[in-house]
Amino acid sequence: MTRRWFGSVRSRATLAATLVVAVALLAAGAAVLLSLRSDLTGQAESEAASAARAVAVELSDGRPYDKLTGLDEDDRPVQIVDERGRVVAASEDLERVTGTGADTARPGDPGGRAGGDADDDTDDSDDANDSDDANGSDGPDDDAPAPRGEVDSDTDFSTGTATIDGTTADYRFAAVEVEFEDRGKFTVYAGAPLAAERSAVGTATTAMLIGFPLLLAVVAGATWLVTRRALSPVEGIRREMAAITASEDLARRVPVPATHDEVARLALTTNETLAALESSVERQRRFVADASHELRSPIASLRTQLEVGAAHPELLDLDGAVTDTVRLQTLAADLLLLARLDAGERPGDARFDLGALAREHAEGRAGVTVTADEVPVAGSRAQVGRVLTNLLDNARRHARSAVTVGVRAEGEWAVVAVADDGDGVPEADREHIFERFVRLDEARSRDDGGAGLGLAIARDVAVRHGGTLTVGRAPAGGALFELRLPRAR
């Protein structure tokens, strides 16, 4: 059942369309999420950098730690770390922090270096001085100008967490360095919350997880219905073809939809094929019927003569029997050649001189004049010779006194012209005479045993060789047959 389902054009089209849309949706969804995350992260970085640089500017102006306005914000974690990694100032409500490179969240937290080293009295003294500086008191001279620092133009970013008033959240931290000549280098860390980024990305992801399957289901259903509607004419064509095959009625035709698309063109082509097949079958039927009729007459005549000869030997018309036998032999040869031509037999590629062949077949014929140039052609010498024989026989039967044959080169063509001085062929019958078993009324009265296959064979051979055979009016008033074959290169 599964194999049959996948064998359907409709199912394969539906599956392909669904897969393409699914890949496109996944790619678009990933791009949207990445862009959304990048934009929101960039916004958080901008906020964090602005806050860190504002604190760094105040610090560079020599403002005491307890006077820095950036440390008073309740919802933004801020740390100031010296070059030895000690926290010298931080936001009031900051409890824990990661991502800033410091071991502690606030100055003097247990386990951190902000409290100093118990084994180094010098460090203790330095820590005490730093602690005094951190409290903004006991400066060397309150009236002396505060030392100014230089704020670095670069900003570094990192991601971490911070706990403020017992609430832990993710933050994007910006780090700005401030360097003093006498106090060394300090780094100001300020964080901006990533809650908006996490929330927006989560909401978008949830919407995609819910919406994408629904959209794929809609695409699959729509594709299934559309392909079903589009392929319904094809099913109608298939059913009609099956009915034609079962009934063997080639006169029937498949329905042509009014859509003017590929299916409609398929139906038109199918009907054209059926018409050509019907014509071919009808032509074969007529051919068999005409061949049977043509064979019946000489066979009946020959049988009659043999029966008379058997009963009365002295009455046997031996010449007539030989004539009927020759007619049968010629007709059988014509039928065999037509069958081979209909079967698509290739003419071969032998090279020969058409002028010499024309002189050869005209030799010994009374009243025939030949003017032939040397023109090489390629193909079956025997079949082209048969064409010349048929044209000469036809011209001699209808000529009053003379037949002329001319062979010449005309561009890429080799042309054979056979003309007679008879009554010619009426214009209305000039294509009709090339049909099989066709003899005009005038020809019937003068044709001695012709079956009406000579000109049909001649045209078929010409077409098989890539040429043409036409009839027109000769200068003397009779028929002019022109055989054109491609010249051999």
Overall mean pLDDT score? 83
Would you list the SSEs in sequence order as H and E? HHEEEHEEEEHHHEHEEHEEHHEE
Q: Quickly count the helices.
A: 10
| Sheet having the most strands | 7 strands, antiparallel
The gyration radius over C-alpha positions equals 53 Å
Termini gap: 60 Å
Helicity level = 40-55%
Number of domains: 3
Summary keywords:
489 residues, alpha+beta, Helix Hairpins, Heat Shock Protein 90, 3 domains, seven-stranded antiparallel sheet, five-stranded mixed sheet, 10 helices, 14 strands, 50% helix, rod-shaped
Task: Give an overview of the whole structure.
It is a single chain. By secondary structure, the protein is α+β, with helices and mostly antiparallel strands. It has 3 domains: 1-138 and 148-240, no CATH class; 262-342, Helix Hairpins (Orthogonal Bundle); 350-486, Histidine kinase-like ATPase, C-terminal domain (Heat Shock Protein 90, 2-Layer Sandwich). Helix content is 50%, strand content 19%. The chain contains 10 helices and 14 strands. It has helices at residues 2-6, 9-60, 121-134, 195-247, 262-311, 318-342, 354-362, 381-398, 441-446, 454-464; strands spanning 78-82, 87-90, 94-97, 150-151, 156-164, 167-180, 184-193, 350-353, 368-372, 376-379, 403-410, 413-420, 468-473, 479-486. The strands form 3 sheets. Strands 1, 2, 3, 4, 5, 6 and 7 form a 7-stranded antiparallel β-sheet that branches. A 5-stranded mixed β-sheet has the order 9-11-12-14-13. The protein has a two-stranded antiparallel sheet with strand order 8-10. Strand 6 and strand 7 form a beta hairpin. Helix 6 packs parallel to helix 10, helix 7 (354-362) crosses helix 8 and helix 8 (381-398) packs antiparallel against helix 10. The two termini are 60 Å apart. The model is unreliable at 111-144 and 442-447 (pLDDT under 50).
